[in-house]
User: Fold this.
Amino acid sequence: MIDDPYEAIKCIPKLKKEKFKTPGGKAGRPFQVLETGDDMMAVRTSRGGKVTIQIEVFQVAEQLLRDLGEKEEGHWVLLSDDVLSGVIRGQNHDKACSSYVFPLLEATGRIEIDRSRPVKLRLSQNAAGESE
Assistant:
């Protein structure tokens, strides 16, 4: 497994052609990666908007799932967790991006998303095992 989550995302086959889906269960919306740069990634939302994501956010997201999941049964963390969403938003210059970060990490096999209500996240068993 590639150590850096952002580099792993950049290795997804046909990354810019793939349609990803936000974690909202049936209400999940499609989005697409527009560009990948040295310090950021841009995605096109289902409504045609553009969201920029700083690459550090992907590393922070994984670390937060590791840290917050340690205390939870099954290591699941709610997507709506205030600490999770607040830290990720702060790392992205106070712009929301969780709905795009986690599906991209899921596509690499680094995390799992339970899209039932409430939406939950955790490190994949492979990723969790490698860190210990």
